Amino acid sequence: MAPVTPEEALEAAFAAQPRERFLPPGQRAAAGRDGPLDIGHGQTNSQPRTVRAMLALLDVRPGQRVLDVGAGSGWTTALLAELVGPAGWVLGVERVPDLVAVAQENLAGAGVPRATVRLAEPGVLGAPHEGPYDRVLVSAMATRLPGRLVEQLAPRGVLVAPVAGVMTRVVLGARPGERSVSEHGTYRFVPLVTD
């Protein structure tokens, strides 16, 4: 049997975790629309095309440890859990308590025990005590590259985040201080709260 390509892995993840499962009841009929949808508390569920582009840039592999910053209602956390498979682990952090409860409930119904969403610690960006991570996904707009999240990456780790309107990919090298940064188009997101 041929190995699964990254594109096939993404297809399978989106099929296993349909967007409507992670939307408020009043928004589920719009799940197929390729646009952001309101999930309450000033937060949105990102448009599928954007989520797919970010996950492709993140290049998640089976068995990896992944941090999902701005987990919202848990959709990206569940997609990441599909990509890391049973040997991997995903931690989502979210700053809105009501959304954390919704995400936890959604993940419980999604059949991905290797993923969890918890409340972001005040004044802490990400979850440094759980790191390092092989991959970090940020689903909120930073004004500048979030160095505190880059610091939570393992060697050869990858971070994908919208920074000042531009989707940015950071890849660490094997040695301390080695990294490459690339830009991948313009996007709009809710702001990343860093304090």
How would you describe the overall organization of this protein?
- There is one protein chain.
- The protein is α/β, with parallel strands linked by helices and about 200 residues long.
- It has a single domain (about 5-15, about 35-185), classed as Rossmann fold.
- The chain is built from five helices and nine strands, in the order αββαβαβαββαβββ.
- The strands form two sheets. It has a seven-stranded mixed beta sheet with strand order 5-4-3-6-7-8-9. The chain has a two-stranded antiparallel sheet with strand order 1-2.
- Strand 8 (about 165-170) and strand 9 (about 180-185) form a beta hairpin.
- Helix 1 (about 5-15) crosses helix 3 (about 75-85).
- It is globular, with a radius of gyration of 15 Å.
- The termini are far apart.
- InterPro entries: PCMT, SAM-dependent_MTases_sf.
Question: Care to give the gist of this entry?
Answer:
The protein has 195 residues and is α/β, with parallel strands linked by helices.
